[in-house]
Amino acid sequence: CGKAPTDSYKVNATYHAGYKSEGMLTIYGMNASQKAQKCAEIIKKRLMKLDLCPRDYYYECLGTGATSCELGQGNNSVEECVLRICVADDDKSPLQAFAKELAPLVTYGPPGVTGDASARPKPISRFGYWPCLIPKDKVNVQVSLIEESS
């Protein structure tokens, strides 16, 4: 039983795919979910105005059921939720701009925005995953044994 070896190796590679950052705010009061969505829109519009909108901009309103249906279509009648915004880009500049726009929503955003108890989110490295096949004749296999010293 079994098959002859293939002419390629299966490779699972990771690579540096830019940077990511995320931040969260608690939103409370009537229509908390709608307020959270408005906050996400405000930040995105401000970044676009600065010409620093990240390549990827995702948000979710935790506690509204948004993860069980299309984003932003969760339960609008809740009186408290957590807005989570995740951004990613090849450059750190849009992420640093995002970090500067998040906390001020507590004072200039819709009423009921609170919960910024942490420092500004910092950009961190993001890694991508690339599964592929590499022809065996293109790989130079070497094995080295390292003896443990006593």
Question: What keywords describe this structure?
Answer:
single chain; 150 residues; alpha+beta; 5 strands; 35% strand
Quick gist of this model?
With 150 residues, the chain is of the alpha+beta class. It is built from 3 helices and 5 strands; from the N terminus they run βαββααββ.
How many H/I helices? Answer: 3
* Fraction of residues in helix: 10-25%
Radius of gyration: 23 Å
How many beta-strand runs?
A: 5
- Largest beta sheet, briefly? 5 strands, antiparallel
Q: Name the helix and strand elements from N-terminus to C-terminus, one letter apiece.
A: EHEEHHEE
- The averaged pLDDT comes out at 88
As an assembly, this protein is single chain
- Rounded to the nearest angstrom, the distance between the terminal CA atoms is 44 Å
Report the principal-axis shape.
elongated
- Give the helix/strand class: alpha+beta
Percent strand equals 25-35%
List low-pLDDT spans: none
Q: Helix and strand layout, with pairings?
A:
Blueprint: E1 8-28, H1 32-49, E2 56-62, E3 80-89, H2 93-102, H3 105-108, E4 113-114, E5 124-135
Antiparallel strand pairs: 1-3, 1-4, 1-5, 2-3
